[in-house]
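Key result, reporting period 2: structure in, sequence out.
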């Protein structure tokens, strides 16, 4: 079942999307494989702290975050990965680690790796570990209003 905040947003905005059920998977790569989605099209959400504030970093599952590059893109902000204990309570309607990449629903900015913007569709966690959402990238961008940056490199 979609995270309630995400479901409400999609309903309110009349967003086109599809729910993809899949066997339980915990990592973005495993989720992409379980949902039969190319890792380049599955958007994983990595939680970071930029100058001490939680933020979402969204990139293709096949990539790894480049925190140095992100720091430069954010004007020299101190950037580090956030620990699960630092963000688990920020997503009360989601399973830990399955938050959808819509930071404004949770009071935080979203930074998206620009490689995703070139895809016709993307998929991402639905708020749990056994469903994904697929939607046109343009629709995701309209709803999430992320800041587009070059943030990652191939694993």
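The corresponding designed sequence is given below.
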């Amino acid at each position: 079942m979609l995270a309630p905040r995400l479901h409400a947003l999609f309903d309110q905005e009349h967003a086109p999307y599809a729910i993809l059920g899949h066997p339980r998977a915990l990592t973005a790569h495993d989720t992409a494989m379980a949902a039969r989605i190319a890792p380049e099209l599955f958007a994983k959400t990595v939680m970071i702290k930029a100058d001490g504030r939680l933020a979402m970093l969204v990139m293709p599952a096949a990539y790894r975050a480049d925190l140095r590059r992100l720091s430069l893109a954010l004007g020299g902000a101190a950037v580090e990965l956030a620990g699960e204990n630092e963000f688990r309570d920020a997503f009360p309607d989601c399973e830990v680690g399955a938050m959808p990449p819509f930071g404004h629903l949770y009071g935080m900015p979203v930074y998206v790796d620009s490689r995703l913007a070139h895809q016709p569709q993307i998929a991402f966690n639905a708020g749990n570990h056994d469903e994904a959402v697929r939607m046109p990238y343009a629709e995701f961008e309209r709803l999430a209003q992320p800041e587009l940056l070059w943030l990652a490199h191939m694993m």
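The chain has one domain: 4-154. The mean pLDDT is 93. This case is discussed further under Risks and Mitigation.
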